[in-house]
Design a protein that fits this description.
643 residues; alpha+beta; Immunoglobulin-like; 6-stranded mixed sheet; 26% helix; disordered N terminus; binds zinc ion
Amino acid sequence: MSFENFLTALVPRIQTTLTPLFRWVVFVTLALGAPVAASAQDVAADTAVMPGIEIALRPERNKAGNVESVLVTLQITDTVSVAPVLEFRAPIELNNIPGIADRLRGFRVDDSIGAVLMTRTDDSVEASGSGYNRRWRTARSVTFPVTVNYRAIVPPGRLRAGPPFDLRTFGGGVSGGGAGFLALPKDSRQYHVHIRWDLRALQRGAIGISSLGDGDADATMALADLESSWFMAGPLGQYPKGGNTGGFSAAWLGTSPDLDLRADMAWAARAYQALSTFFGDTVQRPYRFFLRVLPESTTSGGTAGNRSFMLQVPVRPRGSTSGGDGGLRSTVAHEMIHGWAGSFQGAGPWASEGLATYFTANLQRRLGLQPIKAFVAELNRLSEQYNGNPYRNATSDVARAAFWADKNGELLTYVRGSLYFFTLDAAIREASGGERSLDDVLLELFARRADGETVTVRTFTNALAKELGPGVAAQLDSVVVRGTKTLFVSPDAFGPCFTHSWTQVVVPDFAFDRRTPDVQTVVSLVPSSAADGAGLRNGDVITTPVTPEMLTSDRVEQMRLDVLRGGESLYLTYMTRPMVNESWQWSRVPGVPLAVCRGAEPSTTQSSSRQSSSKHSSSKQPRSKHSPSKKRAIPKRRAQGSP
Ligand SMILES: [Zn+2]
């Protein structure tokens, strides 16, 4: 899973989030090779300064009114007249979801001479889960313009978790990501891109919107950005009415009884504006939020792409959306923040996801975008998912390897990364007596990055060292890369409005592989846990029904499991031995003014701010790990050793 491939740009092109429990990073290996046509010798009639691609999209409907396919026509021009070979490709599998390669019909390439014979090869299956491609190569040289025709068949609904690239139909329309249905040339150059919608087959009033623009649109971009762009056509809802006016806009297909999309989109527009101001935007550029409702979906999630993101939500009954933790709105903020926060060059996903999660919680609080209780709920979620995570003290590589199998492997990147940034923020505010914060450090780095400087992990730790002294690089490595050091978040880390008491969370002995939702396949078995000691092994299929609550129960009880292993039936019985970690239960301190909860200095005058700030941080004292308040008498064994 090579994150670095898509993190080569300053701002990660593609990031993914599922809420509330599922959040994906997307490992798009779409880095394109050297330009194929550049070696062509025939330079006659070269008037164009860059290659061009016109993409005509014609959704086609079945009798039920659903879109069953999209007719795609690519018209490709180039700065040269002839290319010795052209290669097109489409994913067979992409980030844990089936790619479009097996669902392209009538793939045909023509040039000015006529039909071009193609050879077809498939990349080898990657074990990493990031995906692999089918490639079509011309069997002879081609003369531009070149036309490509094919029909992309909308796949049946899927249960597998993964980003919303795949074509989906609902409500008389269709949506997807560029990587989900475009077979593009292998070329790293900038293209002039023109999108042309042909919506004759859709109902009257249908419109087409993409990350490139409302309706037919033009842009200059690399083809990789086209693959991370979003496309949506049909009877779409729009915010503001009438579409994009230069800044934020939203488009959606379908609706669900639990959603109030007009209100959510108005909130998203307000949030975008507030975040844009915070991150110091000087120009207003179009930014698009796409939302698709999928009745067959059981989870929701989003993926950020080219100045836009797509959010996918299920149909749910009215009132079923949890109001407390900000749910959908937090995901919206998270995806938008990716576009400003980006990552540090050379950093693992802890940086991009840690930054996005940190800013999402902190800025929604400070900019007044969510009620204070949502911030408390988020702190409790992060604390529980960190301390109750069997990968808490694992290396990021080990956790990453479990990404698709176990949501704990996936969540670790977000929770460990964001809690790390929160502890840095508290440390900088304490060291500077409230004069400086992590945001000062980060915004300075983002400004330098915007000026063209390469901001690496080293650049970041050098900037941190100025605030906190030497040792920050080693700390970063031990906390978020190797996982050997466990984070402690001080009860006054967020000022006088918040505090925490000790609580306990149970680390599950094992989890079930979510890639095999029909059977209970054991993954993430913790070495020397009770289940491990009883003989359970990763890969075993447990046929006894086991609920998630049973896996995180703090009760000592008899466990009886019927197990299938390599065609053999086994029967295991053992006493559970809950592995308990201390965690932090956050709450709001009564009586503290709202402005202080939102991050204002607790004092009313400027002159005393330093004093009062250092006063409340002087009480910061890491509690001994061995003195938690023991609320329950349960046999305890500190969880250690990652699965
Ligand atoms: Zn994210």
